[in-house]
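FAQ: What does the model actually see?

It sees only this:
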Amino acid sequence: MTELQRANQRPLDLDVFIAASPPTVWQFWVDPERMCEWWGIKAELDPHPGGIYRVTMGDDGPVMSGAYVELEPYERLVFLFGWEDGRHGMAPSSTRVEVTLTPEGHGTRLILRHLALRTTDAIDQHQQGWVHFLGELARVVVPAAGHGAPAPDAGA
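And it is asked to produce this:
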């Protein structure tokens, strides 16, 4: 792998605190109805290795398409990520997203790592997208968990 290829594959890392337990947060990544509360208007999810991971972002909006790779309930999930229209040079399942959930106090520390983003534009666009949608996740999970306001951290 060349230095340029290595540079273009740097991971995107984000860190968010959510005032809900890991099992509660987990449901928002594996349940299609819960997924639609924070990320997209339609979700087709089959949460087992090799199962579909497909989210329609809006009316006539882009469709994220991939598959689950690893699932460790309430702790970690990994899925392949790309766009059905190939935006940002990302075909379906062409990148990898790793989500780690760690109990912290009365909530969960969520670490998201998006790997194999190959251009500066893709990194910038996905950082903006993930910051927005993880903020939405923190906002909708808390009422579902029966707690007060969320406390999201700034993206790293």
